[in-house]
Amino acid sequence: MNxxxxxxxxxxxxxxxxxxxxxxxxxxxxxxxxxxxxxTAPKRYMPIFLPNGAxxxxxxxxVGVGAAWxxxxxxxxxxxxxxxxxxxxxxxxxxxxxxxxxxSVEPSHGRQPxxxxxxxxxxxxxxxxxxxxxxxxxxxxxxxxHAAFKGKTALPSLQVGLSTVESYCDGQPCSNSRSISxxxxxxxxYKMVDPLAVFNKISGVIKPGGNDNTPLDPEAQxxxxxxxxxxxxxxxxxxxxxxxxxxxxxMRMEEFLTSVREIETRVTGxxxxxxxxxCAAIAQPAMGTVGPNAFRQNxxxxxxxxxxxxMNDLIVMALQCDATxxxxxxxxxxxxxxxxxxxxxxxxxxxxxxxAGGTCPEYHGGGQHGSxxxxxxxxxxxxxxxxxxxTKLDAIKEADxxxxxxxxxIFFGGAMHGSNHACNQLPISLIxxxxxxxxxxxxxxxxxxxxxxxxxxMMQKVFDMQDVTQFGRNLTGAPLKVVDEAVG
Length: 488
Fold this sequence. Notes:
Layout: H1 3-6, E1 10-13, E2 16-19, H2 33-37, E3 44-49, E4 64-65, E5 85-92, H3 108-111, H4 122-129, H5 139-144, E6 158-161, H6 175-178, E7 182-184, E8 187-188, H7 195-202, H8 218-225, H9 230-233, H10 235-242, H11 247-274, H12 304-320, E9 327-330, E10 344-348, E11 353-359, H13 363-368, H14 372-394, E12 408-413, E13 428-432, E14 442-450, H15 451-462
Parallel strand pairs: 3-9, 3-12, 5-14, 6-9
Antiparallel strand pairs: 1-2, 4-14, 5-13, 7-8, 10-11, 12-13
């Protein structure tokens, strides 16, 4: 384990273990800060799943580097982050399903997402094992169990998402479209969608391996009933810690604890509006698997935008505290049925978009299979939430002067092209990772390249996993190759 980052302070109390961000006071004596900090920032990986693919407005109009290319009308929400991202066009995953590499994979919503981080047809694994639900181990979990990551954080990985309704699974096992992470061939890692459950897991209230339905620690239940904060539980530990810190670090610690309390208040409110952990005193359904009469749009107690915002804050908190270095985030289940009437409709041209009046329809039927303006408006809103997350990560500096974003690869993309359901021309972008060797500020057209090559590149060239020489399956027989255009 990296000695510098293993010396982070953990505030402990009844049922709580809250890790503080890196503080200068942790520096070893008699060594300069620059000498200790050089090359010590944690490497992090975060796949963010976009359901239903993307509209035709996703692809930038030109290829090139720097001024030679511009963000598309859907991706222009990344604005100043253009210099820290790259768009990679024409990845395909049809070769994981079809011997000829063809792009037709049906039922599309029920099959393609299962291969997003495995590059294997889950149906083939089910037949090989003669079981009803199976897949290969996903890339994020291969990473979490590798020496490059294993044992370095309290949580090996974290799975989060925004789904609130029972999505249609296209006649396939629902683990294909409601989860992108698999820790074993028969073990899907379903996302946590209740933000208070995620907060509790980050702060040690829920132990590693727990999910939305894990019973709360009795102390946590009592705090919730009394409307008390986890900070009350660690007050004594925090007081002792502050006495050891420099003046500057005391201020940074106070700012962090204030932000934790603000996040805790917001996630409790959203959780209560969802009928989640904050409503533990009443019977409530498991989030993400509720019945067909569950709400499918914003209500008096639930707001999709607030849900997305607090989940972003929780992801930032988890990475800033080094609670985990691997997070998968599903913006929705693959076939999202949520009505995006909180998003204003926009009209798109080749170079931009303007508000057009009215609000957006349901994501799948009226969005993906409606007008391109409807579809693009919804996709752009989701991309905007990813951009907001990346911007927050870029604002937090590491010990060596880089930002968290510089040391994090955000793999943002979908499992299908878009309205045509094709498994080629996938919407793929990499944000961040500049300090990890990723190329920046470019749009590259790869003509036709297996998606598994990009996952292989992450392991081989970015995350020090050169001993991993096999990944996924390509039924055309094409060998694994590093995507040189993305790194170096």
